[in-house]
């Protein structure tokens, strides 16, 4: 089970590069606070990203309240600016939480090639992610076995199994992460970001945050407002939403995207939604066979497979093909889509993005809705979206059920009235982080700080999604410091 809010799902899901942090210094790899930059190593799954890229490891405190205590290593990656008129470093976070900057930065670099004229492109694996003390909560066989757990339970037995699986997952995370489990919060990572800024030699933080990366950027701005430089937040998480509100936002967002998809195929959205909901009920009662031996398409996998193509309008034809196949009784295509979202390789090996996602978000969020509360809310969720509502409704109770460590807040604090202007980019057709979040973030940052740029488009995120207006506005801001008029709209 994984929450839907992930930039990684489509925008850079094709990224196969995974960089390790390597030794072996090059002639000019010193600098940046004494970091030893070297060639990025290949991993077991992918080659190194090429000679343009360098990697290093930065030591930071495990517990920022004890700055001289035990340390952990953060894995960094960078490509130096191509031009002579360098602004500084531009730090990227690709969301999740749990996305690996080491694996995603090289594949995203062509999208931001203009920005490399004046910036070193820099990213990192946040604490608890990938090469930075990454957490694995269960093995591949356990993950696949859990696919049979019904995450929209209909009977007491299914409900018991659902919550037991959630508790087991948390126990596995605690066993693997140990002391780190209580120190992977968004606030911890924001403090790590400031250390990264310092060692890179920048007086101010220049930052590009996507999806969850917008919450991280807002948290940084709140903690270090006077160190904010040029900061762009794209595909914005609503800072005012609590656990239930966030889930309802996503139900609305994905239903809007589904409506857009259905309209594009000539279907009435209400009728098309009812048809898909009926398909999911049939799959819940009798999972579909697939071409993969020993695996069937469960309702959970079907909903996950539906989700993936909605992140990107160009993927809608794939959804049509998968739904047609499922209606014929073949779950293979939806299973392939679900595997893509769940980071499952053809070999059966699963990545750990969703593990890190859960560990970080459950440390952040102290709300733990009960099963009884969820059942009260289910009719409202189902009204918002008959397809996605039940999944996201039950998720409010199951995601952090019986979690080993307490959460830290109800909603993140992002107010930053002393910060420089921050460009907040919202997409009206964003399924995972609905547009309302951008409006909320721009207001919460403070008057004169949050500058809202709206794109009337489709898909998760706006920059690099086909709008010359969005791209030129963001580029002008980051490259030249040109702040657009608050409320500018790109259509």
From TrEMBL:
Family to which the UniProt record says this protein belongs: Belongs to the peptidase S33 family.
The protein, known as: Alpha/beta hydrolase
Transmembrane segments: none
Species name: Streptomyces koelreuteriae
Signal peptide: 1-18
PANTHER family in alphabetical order: 2-SUCCINYL-6-HYDROXY-2,4-CYCLOHEXADIENE-1-CARBOXYLATE SYNTHASE, TRIPEPTIDYL AMINOPEPTIDASE
Example of a GO MF term: hydrolase activity
One Pfam assignment: Abhydrolase_4
